[in-house]
From TrEMBL:
GO biological process: siderophore-iron import into cell
Keyword annotations: Cell membrane, Membrane, Transmembrane, Transmembrane helix, Transport
InterPro entries named among the record's database cross-references: ABC_BtuC-like, ABC_transptr_permease_BtuC
The protein's name: Iron ABC transporter permease
GO cellular component: plasma membrane
Annotated localization: Cell membrane
Transmembrane segments: 54-74, 86-102, 108-129, 141-162, 185-203, 271-293, 299-317
Organism: Paenibacillus herberti
Gene Ontology molecular functions: transmembrane transporter activity
Family of the protein in this entry: Belongs to the binding-protein-dependent transport system permease family. FecCD subfamily.
CDD domains: TM_ABC_iron-siderophores_like (cd06550)
Length: 324
């Protein structure tokens, strides 16, 4: 019943995202945009601007939320998010290098290079965490991810300083935005997201065991290394494809995981479906709010999620400190 209610709320938010914006469009024109399209300005806005934007918010919010759940279960850290794998900075560095070499700033170049950079960064962090004595542990993962984030961010900033044109072009993408996304690129990246979503649902029962600790999981007959490798693959596919489409949108993976557990409990077979719906709902609502915060001007949705997520992160850190 809870999932049905959540699905209805997501559907309403999706319809609301298509219906409202800076430009006021009558409801009749919105209906005609799908059933009797005549090429008018209002119908073009609905079909070519608002509908793609709502679709991107729907799938990106869902993907980031599931990636956050998997990341927190893998690291056994409630403050972890997909960004811990260096995915955001890996994608940003790949885009900057591609622009610096080719001199192009096409949307397809952004998406393809971002996806490649995110995947390479995530895989490298996983391999780095697996080196040395003992298996991959949460503390090794956190250290490797934080180190890689700093390294990639430093290299990216260094290249941007040398090339101001790249800085001007990439600035809006780095803020995380759903506007101006080409549907051709979206449809090319969507199968990668779908694989990640299916993988996240399939490994949900294993996350319950991984969450208990490595020794407990091994005692229950689980192949811990392979499960962790699958978790890394799911996070890279979901978060990497999300960054490729919309840029680095923060706090969705972190916050939604806690909201889903508060509703569904700690059974990831239920937490992940709830997180998927809640992530889509939160990003759709944040994108709607981004259209009206400043009059006659829209701000990137990544700014809105950061504004909402920062107090939540402070609250989680203080609660974790009181618990210890």
């Amino acid at each position: 019943m809870g999932l049905i209610i959540l699905f209805i709320l997501v559907l309403l938010a999706f319809l609301l995202s298509i219906s409202i914006g800076v430009v006021s469009i009558p409801f009749r024109s919105i209906v005609d945009a799908f059933w009797s399209f005549d090429g008018s300005r209002e119908q073009l806005i609905v079909r070519d601007v608002r509908l793609p934007r709502a679709l991107v918010a729907l799938v990106v919010g869902c993907s980031l939320a599931i990636a956050g759940c998997v990341m927190q279960a893998l690291s056994r850290n409630d403050l972890a998010g997909p960004e811990l794998f260096g995915i955001n900075y890996g994608a940003a560095l790949a885009i900057v290098i591609a622009m610096f070499v080719s001199g192009s700033a096409s949307t397809y170049l952004f998406a393809s290079s971002a996806l490649l950079g995110a995947a390479l960064a995530g895989i490298f962090v996983f391999l780095l965490s697996s080196l040395g004595r003992g298996a991959l542990t949460p503390i090794k993962l956190v250290i490797a991810g934080s180190t890689m984030n700093l390294l990639l961010a430093s290299i990216t900033q260094g290249i941007l300083i040398l090339n101001e044109q790249s800085l001007d072009t990439i600035r809006f993408w780095l803020a995380g935005s759903l506007t101006g996304r080409e549907m051709e690129t979206f449809w090319k990246v969507l199968p990668i997201m779908a694989i990640g979503l299916i993988g996240g649902l399939l490994i949900s029962k294993h996350l319950n065991i991984i969450r208990l600790g490595e020794e407990m999981a091994q005692g229950l007959g689980q192949h811990v290394f392979y499960i962790k490798a699958l978790c890394v693959a799911v996070v890279v596919l979901l978060a990497g494809s999300s960054v490729a489409i919309a840029g680095p949108i923060g706090f969705i993976g972190l916050a939604v995981s806690h909201l889903a557990r508060a509703i569904a409990g700690h059974d990831y077979r239920w937490t992940i479906p709830y997180a998927a719906g809640a992530g889509s709902l939160l990003l759709l609502l944040a994108d709607i709010g981004a259209r009206f915060i400043l009059p006659e001007q829209e701000i990137p949705v990544g700014v809105v999620t950061a504004f909402l997520g920062a107090p939540f992160l402070i609250y989680l850190a203080q609660r974790k400190e009181r618990a210890t």
